[in-house]
Specification:
142 residues, two-stranded antiparallel ribbon
């Protein structure tokens, strides 16, 4: 292909982009679309990093004494790890709530709806079962 002036006769076949002497054709005008300019609210890495690090350290402190049954201090270290893991989970839930995330099955805060009692009961039972299993396992170390 050679570089040269445009073939105006060939381009004349495109009717959509043509301009009339007084401006664009009326048929070529597209409707306006509203676009949200603010970025979506999501957790940033500087918010997630301390939560993930605390959760990892806490779960390791909880898991190692339980797995290897380390002497007399194992139960104390395991309970401290459980406490740190719980704090990291609470911190993560609060950070997620601040950016607008909700638990599955629960309505958003702005919706003004009441949550279904069955979903809340399911979360309470699951949380109580996890706490009971953790306390039972730590108690078995003694």
């Amino acid at each position: 292909m050679e570089a040269g002036p445009r073939d105006t006769e060939r381009d004349a076949g495109h009717e959509a982009g043509r301009l009339s002497p007084d401006g664009p054709d009326e048929l070529a005008v597209t409707p306006e679309v509203e676009v949200e300019l603010r970025p979506a609210r999501r957790l940033r890495i500087w918010q997630l990093a301390p939560i993930v690090i605390l959760a990892a350290v806490g779960s390791l402190m909880f898991a190692f004494p339980l797995a290897f049954e380390v002497g007399e201090g194992g139960a104390v270290v395991a309970m401290l790890g459980l406490l740190i893991s719980g704090c990291a989970a609470g911190w993560g839930m609060m950070a997620a709530r601040r950016v607008g995330h909700t638990w599955p099955g629960l309505p958003p805060r702005e919706a003004g709806e009441r949550p279904d009692w069955r979903v809340v009961a399911l979360y309470v039972v699951a949380g109580a079962a996890l706490v009971a299993l953790a306390v039972w396992r730590v108690d078995r170390l003694r």
